[in-house]
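Q&A log
Question type: sequence-to-structure
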Amino acid sequence: MWPYPKVIAHRGGGTLAPENTMAALQCGLSHGFRAVEFDVMLSKDGIPVLMHDPLFGRTVAGEGNVAGTMAQDLMRMDAGSWFSKDFAGEPVPSYQQVLEFCLKHGIWMNVEIKPVPGFEDATGRAVALMTRQINAGEQVLLSSFSFDALMRAKECAPEIARGFLTDQLESDWLQRLQALSAIALHTNHHYLNADLTGQVKDAGYGVFCYTVNTPARAREIVEWGVDAFCTDRIDLITHDFIA
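Response status: OK
Response body:
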């Protein structure tokens, strides 16, 4: 049900580097993590880039938004200074750059499709086709809170594995997993318990949790049968925490 790594570095480097950057991926790798999670959305010209927030102001300074900015301009922006002066000038990377880096270093990827509202189909399509173009499908699991984005990814590249993201399990979780031909349910560990974990597992799906930041909580959910989780605390929870 879950043939992938079991402990994943959240947004590349967790709390140790600016999220969704090449520096974060390097940081995770230096801590032994060959499995990462990161977010992808589309630029104005339809190029997938790594970014979590649709609006500027948190990880990228200034006003504006990702969907209204050309990729070449996004990739000149400083995505590191907000975190630390040591990372000043760290750019926004393209999805293609990250795919190529991860393939080179044998890093497995949980790629969260993060569409700006109204761009669900376009984002799902672009991410799926880029993953296929770079021939990275075997090292990628696509996930998203957007059912529509994942459905579009399924239509464009059905061979690439999918996991459905939901904050809490709703009554239709099984129907959605079936419609997506997904292999796993991804959910917030705060709203999960042993019984719900068992229901998903009994239905034949893997269970992945975000974002688990203490060893005690990690051990607890693993005892329930949770297959994998991502963590910000790559300094506290090692890549081989789950044997």
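Response note: The helical segments are 22-30, 71-74, 95-105, 120-133, 147-156, 173-180, 194-202, 215-224.
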